[in-house]
Amino acid sequence: MEEGNSNNTIVNNVARAIVAALDWNSTPDARKAAVSYLESIKAGDIWVLANTSFLLVKKDWSSEIRLHAFKMLQHLVRLRWEEFGPLERRNFANVAVELMSEIADPCEEWALKSQTAALVAEIVRREGLNLWQELFPSLVSLSSKGPVQAELVSMMLRWLPEDITVHNEDLEGDRRRLLLRGLTQSLPEILPLLYTLLERHFGAALSEVGRQQLDVAKQHAAAVTATLNAINAYAEWAPLSDLAKYGIIHGCGFLLSSPDFHLHACEFFKFVSPRKRPADDSASEFDSAMSSIFQILMNVSREFLVRSSSTGGAIDESDYEFAEYVCESMVSLGSSNLQCIVGDTTTFSLYLQQMLWFFQHFKLALHYQSLQFWLALMRDLMSKPKLSVNSSGDEPAATNVGSTSAQVDNEKRKILSFLNDDICSTILDISFQRMLKKEKLISGSALSLGVLELWSDDFEGKGDFGQYRSRLFELIKFIASNKPLVAGAKVSERIIMIIKNLLNSPTPAQDLAVMESMQVALESVVSSIFDGSNEFAGGSSEVHLAVCRIFEGLLRELLSLNWTEPALVEALGHYLDAMGPFLKYFPDAVGSVINKLFELLNSLPFVVKDPSTSSARHARLQICTSFIRIAKAADKSILPHMKGIADTMAYLQGEGCLLRGEHNLLGEAFLVMASSAGSQQQQEVLAWLLEPLSQQWIQIEWQNNYLSEPLGLVRLCSETAFMWSLFHTVTFFEKALKRSGMRKGNFNLQNSSSATSIPHPIASHLSWMLPPLLKLLRGIHSLWSPSIFQILPGEIKAAMSMSDVERSSLLGGGNPKLFKGALTFIDGSQFDVNKEGYTEPNEADIRNWLKGIRDSGYNVLGLSTTIGDPFFKCMDIDSVALALIENIHSMEFRHTRQLVHSVLIPLVKSCPPDAWEVWLEKLLHPLFVHCQQALSCSWSSLLHEGRAKVPDNHDILTGSDLKVEVMEEKLLRDLTREICLLLSTIASPGLNASLPSLEHSGHVGRVDMSSLKDLDAFASSSMVGYLLKHKNLAIPVLQISLEAFTWTDSEAVIKVCSFSAAVVLLAIYTNNVDLREFVSRDLFSAVIRGLALESNAIISADLVNLCREIFIYLCDTDPAPRQILLSLPCISPNDLHAFEEALTKTASPKEQKQHMRSLLLLATGNNLKALAAQKNVNVITNVTARPRSSVNAPENRIDQGQGDTIGLAAIL
After folding, report:
1. Which of these, 846, 823, 843, 819, lies nearest to 833 by C-alpha position?
2. What contacts 947, CB < 8 A, 6 or more positions away?
3. What is the mean predicted confidence (pLDDT) over 581-609?
4. Which of 227, 273, 446, 997 is deepest in the core (most CB within 10 A)?
5. How far apart are CA 1134 and CA 1140, in angstroms?
6. What is the pTM of this model?
């Protein structure tokens, strides 16, 4: 009696605790106590947990209590099942199955039925195949008793394979394989049962509806839905032949015609359509089943497309939704299993026709789905076959690869033969029409696009318009490569039609959107046809001649246009750009295009006084830019016209009809032309372009007047014409360096400057270009020094603050809409390139000028360093250091970051080893000293006070406190990452050729002590070695590297990790005691502190490896690594001894890292968040069905150190 009372007491207490835990009206303390009590029950006596939970799932209790009790039972099965004996587990299973019978009541809530089914499924998963075979007959019997029972059994069958389709770390790999094997063996029983339930209850639902027994009909319908959900759980992995053999494919296909169930049935086809063809003997059965799926879906599609074309009004949104799901499955089928129907000409042709109808459909969602098929098909057909290399190198393997390649090519050609001219024409027509956003098309436009539902900003779930349009362009390119004649004719026909409409339009500029959208389409077609590698075009001279005639005709139409309105002129210039690749192969047309561009340039007004007509200036600049694009695309075809262009430029300049910005662009086009004519021509062009600039640039008068003392720049900012003239000179230097043989990323490493005997075309000009630029930059830098800033005029001070665009960028927002005539710097800021000094400068003009000189000036210096020896030998290090570093302490973070990125990193990469002594110390020492102090202070403020202290804050005080804090933190992180990137660059392999590798050092820690070298031995061929040899450089750098591990910025840690790895190598291979002590004590501690931050989870493997290398290779020569590990809170000497013992048994770095990781977790009591963050446990949610097309993006929560102690102290 007492025991029964005790049980009742526990049951009542648990019930009250569940209510309190779920009741938000309870006090926090009450909820906390309730949760704690429930956890104690779950962790306590297993019999108490089982008995209590089984009592609480009875109907006597509320739904909330019953649901929680079911979850407690699932917890027991999932985590404590092994504590029961075999007989007890079998009894438990029987009770759970009985629960299914009890809860099979129409009045029961769906969630309770689902949890019951989930519990039984969990038990079967835990017990395995034997229990399943015992239970199956009783489940079949239960399912035959009525629709509610059938629904419950289907639910259970749906949850049963969950661990196969959803990853669950609680289920080990072996058990998952056993479950898969057991369920696969049971498919001959499961699938027929599911088909029977589907057929039985669908028929019963129809019958009951006919008898007006709607409540009973709903029960049967629920059983059908549950059965379809169960089928879908097997669709992703059950053999397709079984799904066909037991009628599942047929049954689901039949239900596609039922409005009540067609979406669930379509889900089945969505899962099976992308299934991969097996390579074993079952391939023919797979092909047969997949062919039947093609037929089913094509029949449904045909019915919809016929209805859609004939009675559009009779189709509602639910029909379109279903059609989209069908089309999605059709796309998967065609993208993954087209081989199943290619052999059947009739079926394949009909399938392509249906996908074309979807592509043509006025509904954007259907067109969008079909686009993915056509793009995937063309990518596959137009791709080159990949040749696999046989590891043994046998000749027969190569022969087999060749024959396989030929077979693949033949199959592709066979499929391409079905893509006739009509199909390609239709795809191009629709693609051309759909390249316009709805918002761009002015209502009442003369260029009607019919009933097409165009892309709109309101269109959800399909990405952005830019991605969609780029896919259209890619498809157009593939079609053009395959059918050049069709593509050429279509694009020409549409453009000529658009031009005629514009010529007849009363307001052509308003109808320009359609023409602008076609410009990139023309570019796609022309570049694809004339790219020189048109393998599938057939190479026929007749085709080439016909294509040539088409584009000659189009070019004549374009050249005949006499537009003078700026927007129209700009559009015409873009069209002539797009014809560039055509001009490369047909040089006879180049002269007329160049003449037309100059005609367009002269048609636009030269001096614009009314700001509202500044679009003319913008159009002039775009026409000049067209020269650059055509020079790139036409290549050597433009060379015969260089003299004519030069003469016209000289004439326009002599007449005063060419602005400096325009002259710079034309000069850049000249450099592009010269680059294809050889180095001699390049040098001559450079001399011709630079000589006029040098005459003004090298004059000592302006330098003395404006650059000899800081306030001279104030005077310069009032001389607007001269100010902008200097700007255009500096920007042209930048263009000349970029266009004179320099290639992105082609920074010379240690000795590459002597690798070629041909001097860089611009090398001889550096000696006069750079000294005045350094003076100009020094003057700009000095404006920020406190003593000078105080005496500056208010307008200059205001101009030194950030622009709105820079603030927006720091806040992570998109750029504000650019005004006409504004071009964009690399960092996103605007600059009006029309400024030529005709008006008094205002604050914005001065800000743009200062920013423009800084941006281009830094780029000129950075690009100059990549030339190598000519730069380092002709430049005076003192003048460079004075200009760049003199005012480093008063620089804002944004400017320091830019200096490092644009000048110092290229300089470090390019500096020859014999120049390290002269250049690196003078430039890097003051930089590192300042940055170490500034970053340390700002990070300390951010981590402990929640707000970074940055010198830029006087620029960003406008706005809310939150916005200011975000901008400050962004500035801090940007500079931190750039400094760490500089350290990573210093440690790059190309600058450290003499650093040895640990891979060849033998077994654990066996570095021969007699082979250790002095640090000096590495200083001449390793930049890290050079840096460590010079203590004044090494101290701030090493301090930065230590502190970076505890700054919550994983990107910075990734970069500093590679530098630290090089330092560790030098500590191992040199006899430098100080360096060894630093690595063994300070660096080892810092890395462990870094592992305490969750933000470093992404780099945790590298951090553990650093700990491994330090301990293994230095613990015998320095006691610090052992001392640091033993100081951690949860480690004993025995643990450390066992760890070292384990290390002696393996030479595998991977196993050593695992031992190190395990020891660190043990020693810190699992408090290293970077390591613990990787142990994510996935919990299966058995109640919630997976939604269609859902994407679960994991959230990475980064510990920002809010008030926490950072480092070993936090661990201890």
Report:
1. 823
2. 941, 965, 968, 969
3. 86
4. 227
5. 10
6. 0.76
